[in-house]
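call fold(seq) -> tokens
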Amino acid sequence: MKSCVCKYLGMFAFGLFLSATWLPVMADTARVASTDLSLNGVAVIQQFRNDQFISALYVETPMTDAAALLADGGPKRMAFRVAADKIAGRSHRRSWIESIRSNNEIDAALLHAKEIREFAKLFDQNLVMGDQIEVDYVPGSGVLVSINGQEAGKITAPGFFPLVLNTWIGKRPPSQEFKEQILGLGDATAREASLAQFQVLMPSDARVAEVAALYAPEPVEEPSAKEKVAEVKKTPPATKKTESKPAASKPVVKVAKKEVPPASRDTGNSQAANTASKAKVGEQSKPVQSTQVASLDKTSKPAEEAVPEVVESVKPPVDIAKLKGNYRRELRGHLGRFLEYPLGDIRRRYGASVLKRPKEGVSRGEVVVKVIVSREGDVNRAQVEISSGEKILDNAALAMVVNAEPLPVMPEDLEGEEFEFLAPVYLTPAG
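ret:
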């Protein structure tokens, strides 16, 4: 304990030194959406007693009540400084999803299932000591995430930020001590020590450049001069042929007179047959002559060597209505395997008697859940469409959806990026 205090005091002393030089207001204030914010609280997130993040919350007007903070609609900043040597991106992303779900009502979380997944994905890369993360709430715009000053992404859905803020001040924060410090209720000495550590943690110039390159948009490459020339040379010659129709008619007449000797095709070799054959050639129209020349041209392939026409197989039409019905049944069957009756919650609320004599709308009932699933089988949104009349039963139906992820993927022949369906379930105690 003594060594830990000495560590924080040392960090604090170094922080005071920096404050006197070039970081005078860095940790106490922040600026979001042209609004100056004040520090509400600062605290340490630990894992196995090792510091992971030093976290700070900035608001317009500091307050100590969690409900008041959640209700306040002004701009806010949740700031993180990485205190661990390394934090794996995959575990960090997963911890965000679990923390948001565990600190919010299940119906609120499922209304933003897609946004939660997209938000957590912004933290998919590995972090190292000194990395600085800001999660800013800008009223009317959404939630903006930046890492080392580089914008990582944005969530624009209204009502999403309170779900994120609840991970700090909700029913299951990183620790009770953490929640008190963020609300400004903790020990003043610990607050100053955390603030000093928060202030001195920063990325190196090389790390800043590395993150900037990671999020930089890919440049659009202009074609080189050689590529442009090659593109011009690739111009199909069909245009030249269509523009020189008069010139193409002269070879037709010459070849017809030279290479179509009537005698070679007439078995009688009579003069009358010769005359008739010549007259017949002279009466051909130009398109027909072009066909004759093409068939008699020595450079062209003989008729017997012509490539046979390839007939592509035509895919039979798909019965979309039937396909949707089959997929809907598959989804409902999959969900049903994860439905669990909330026995403990019902008993605690109503007693054991309602389990022996189930009552509609109390210990048993039907719930209809509307689910929107992505092509990959991820739940984008779910909500109770028709309630059973009992919140506990409704939440059990929603928990079924959460536990069933991922759902079966959409069939290839179904169009669109999402599929919406209703899942009716009936909950009743066994026996």
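The first strand starts at residue 29 and ends at 32.
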